[in-house]
Amino acid sequence: MDLASALFLGVLQGITEWLPISSSGHLVIMQRLLFSYNSVLFDVMVHGGTLMAVIVVFWRDFVDLVINLFLTLLEIPRNGTYAFHSSEKRSLSWYVVLGTIPIAVVGYLLKDYVDILFNDLKLVGICLLITGLWLYLTKNSKPLRRLSLKSSIIIGLAQAVAILPGISRSGSTISTGLLLGVNREDSVRFSFLLSIPAIAGALALEVASSPLSRVLSLDNLVGFLASFIVGVLAIKFLLAMIRKNRFHWFSYYCFLVGATVMLISLI
């Protein structure tokens, strides 16, 4: 892949991974328009860039997540030095673990069908329309509750659906949280933390099976850095939109692109 294409696709990934408009759907569309297909390793590397973006922006929550899981696994009494870790944060750590199980199961079951799913332009169009509807329904939501065990599992199921190209991971998880009545802060924070193990797992599997020279190729590094930098900016923009109760605005874009893709797939 030439560096210009790697840079373009890295920027595209950085924008679409965290804005609720589906990064996988846009990568399928761009590949069709450019008449080129990326390696799985490149796709995983640009996802790695957006993974680093969410860890940087939510680094305090990420550190709390890791520490609380570690303390729980070791069954260390939470007192003294560890007193600043509240039971609420400890619960959040386990909610992330439980919420990750659905996408792990679905990803394993569909691993042999990934190429088929990512070559179906009509499916992308349909899924983008579904994402648009999902986002639009949040317009009149009244998110007041705190995150619970039940809502974390349901949000985890929503993330599993996002394995389909055109279903936005952030869109499906944040929308589901808001529709369940989970307050905006908890919905957003849980959505981003939930993405970490899902992306990290795919990244680790692909990188472990690839030669280091391929992983560190110039085009992969360019795509990784571009998706990281743009991903940070995209997350901050999304947070601003959610605070202003404008999350549903992204639905109009999904409706437009989804309908256009459907028309193109029928020609």
- Which structural class do the helices and strands define? mainly alpha
Large-scale geometry: globular
| Poorly predicted runs | 79-85
Q: What is the number of beta strands?
A: 0
Output the radius of gyration.
Answer: 18 Å
Termini Cα gap? 29 Å
Number of folding domains? 1
Count of separate DSSP helical elements: 13
Written overview of the protein:
The protein has 267 residues and is mainly α. The chain has one domain. Helix content is 75%, strand content 0%. The chain contains 13 helices and no strands. The radius of gyration is 18 Å and the shape is globular. The two termini are 29 Å apart. About 3% of the residues have low confidence.
Entry summary:
The protein is mainly α.
Keywords summarizing the entry:
single chain, 267 residues, mainly alpha, 13 helices, 75% helix, 0% strand
Please give the structural blueprint.
Blueprint: H1 3-18, H2 23-34, H3 40-57, H4 59-74, H5 87-109, H6 114-117, H7 121-136, H8 149-161, H9 169-179, H10 184-208, H11 212-215, H12 218-243, H13 250-266
